# Entry
Amino acid sequence: MISEALGEEVAFVELSREEAHAHMAQFMPSEVIGGTLDVLGVPLPAEQEISPDLANVLRRPARPFGAWVARNLPAFR
# Structure
């Protein structure tokens, strides 16, 4: 969706766990990185679902990813 909105190719570069750990260590506490990578790398099915609590927390319904891309497009230019 980001590529489509920009009208150009956006490359996705997958990092190994070690590469991701090294990058995240620049801005995250070391004791948090392993758990974060576990959740991001192999999320449980329940972690992939949109929680019904989201609307309560945001005080509005969830919006599609494409809407987020459109609102934040300047950040990708």
